[in-house]
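Supplementary material to the annual report.
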Amino acid sequence: MMNELEKEFQAYYGQFDREHGSLRQSFVASMAKAEAPARVRIRLRGWAKMAVAAAAALLFVIGATMWGPSAQPGGLNGQAAWATVVEQFPRINSIHFTLETPTGDETVQVEMWWRRPHEYRMELPNGLVITSNGEKRCQYDPATDKMLITAPGPGPEMFILGELGGLFAAESELSRDWASQCAYLRTEEFIYKGAQCRKVFCEKDGRLYEYVIDGRVSDEPGGTRMPFYEVKEYSGVKDGRMLSHLQVIEVGADWPSDLFEVVPKPGMSVVDRREE
Amino acid sequence: MHLGQPDARLVERALAGDESAFAELYDRYARLVRAIARDGTNDLQQAQDLAQEVFLRAYSKLGELKNPDRFGYWLASIARNVARESRRSRLRERHLWLGEEAEELVDEMAEELRDTQETRDRLVLLAEAIAVLNDKERLALHSFYLQGQDIEQARRIVGVSRSSFYRLLGRAKERVEAYMREREGR
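Predicted assembly:
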């Protein structure tokens, strides 16, 4: 069955090669008439330049203090590096990530887009989509073609994220408190996707957290550097099973607003419970 | 002609005014973008038109791309948005996609396979099976088959890890096979 299916996949996808030559020619002609793209540069005004310089100086002082000679085994001040990373959370305006949660023999994967202060989109298995944009929360199930509208704000789906999700929504003070409550265990240096990174292992409430971080201080406006690349949560410090695996895809991206709502289509069953 | 340059290098050249560099990106990703656009319409020609629109949009916004290494992922996001916009207005007609226009297209595809009646029906069924997958699963299939079955390239377009991509692709194929088996009454 599978060999036959593979041939059919090849035949199906072969259709997208059709007329490529003429389509390419047409596109190149359109491109020549279009306005050439220009690199977008962020130009800071005088006062903003001073503010960035002051912030960078402050961060340098903090970094020099925290990253100075360490009493930690191995000579790496991982907890300080992690704390500096957590400081960056409130500066991130948007984040796109996947979260995998093993459940028995399967792994459930959720994909999420989150934009401050209150917009998010979550895509769950089987096509279920949940969005919230400050005006309404939409929950759409393609299997039944039904949409439920409720008051805006996090719903039961946020339990999927657990404490990790709370870090993005929490104010900076809470984020720092969370980091300070983590017991630093150890740090390992390793190469991650071709770049020098660190794995920082922390324990909180009996669970082990394994972070892959860059840890470089960033003064990019809008926060486009990922605070961490991946986080794995284990049920215990030793030989615990993995509870969740969060992978950051992108931060600071600019998404259209319609990403955070489900627009009703003709024929879709819509139940609006905002007034209830 | 600069063959085999990384996407990031082609993006830089395009931003510097080299249109041939963006044309090369078009060659690399046009088929994928058409497949994604096809998810939002029941017509191959319209999918081709939507794909052209996606590339023009990407060309005009190229300077906003923060990480040129992720051009494929970024382009696929634009294509998915365009397909989503198109699908919202056409979802009600989705069942029509299995009608005359799909039959016409399948006639041509099947002819290339020196078709039998059985083959023609199965290609329509395959198209239907792909249509009912969720966005991520569909994108995994499109990326895999239209990027030369290069797992690394495909998973970067989908934006997931290698292991997640394998699971996603496996699940997509299983669902397609199960759907076809169920519809054929096997």
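Chain B touches chain A through 63 residues (CB under 8 Å).
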